[in-house]
Structures are given as C-alpha cells and as structure tokens.
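Recall that a protein's primary structure is simply its ordered list of amino acids. Everything else, from secondary elements to tertiary packing, is in principle encoded there. The following example makes that idea concrete.
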Amino acid sequence: MNEELALKTFVVFMKATKSVQDKMKIDLNKYGLTWTEFSVLEILYRNGKQTVQQISKAVLLASSSMTYVIDKLQEREYLIRSDCRQDRRTVYVSITDKGKALMDRCIPEHQKFIQDLFQEINLDEKKMMISLLGKIN
C-alpha cells in the first residue's frame, strides 16, 4: 500500500511540475525568454555581477550549458562578460541597462503570474507545500 501511495504521489508531483513548467514557458515567451534565460537574468538583476560558476550553481545547470545561455543573452545585449583581473580563468557576468529594463517590466508581471498560479491554494496549504516539498529536497 505504501509503495502504491508513493508512486501515486510521485506521478501527481511530476504532472503538477510539468503543468507549472508549461505555464511558465508560455508566460516567459511573452518576453522572448526561456526559463533558464529568465533565471540567469533574475540572478544578475537581484544580486549584481556573478561568476559563471555562481550562476550555474544557482540555476542548477552545468557550466558548459550555461555558456550557451550566456552567449544567447549577450547577443541580445541583456548581459556582458568581463574577465577577472586576479584569475584569468574566472569570467564575470553582469546585466546591462537593456537587461535591467526588460527585468523591470518582466519581474512584476511574472510575480503576478505566480500569485495567480497558486491562488487556489490557501495560506496554510502553501506553508504545508513548502514543508512537504522541503522534505524531498
């Protein structure tokens, strides 16, 4: 019985995850961004200059894959790279004014999207979800 319930929990969790991801893709597509691109810009927007490794760790993406995402964002002039003077192996990434302007517009609308996404879940249920999902992590 416990195995069946664990499997059902897993399936429901995965379906919910996919549903949220699909809705996020649609929402972020309005800005011409993927989830990963948005995540990179959000980290830089909120925290300032970061190394590629710091961004990769925060976004949970390998540095090699992160290079591709950063290249795309740099081509669109949303961020810039700069070398570290003390360690040539280290590269810093910073958001540009164009990137900040995009995030100034995007973040409030995205926060509203997330609020709307979870509007059917009351405060106590949200706290419970955080607690339960934290146990998986």
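The longest strand covers residues 79-83. The beta strands are 50-51, 79-83, 91-95.
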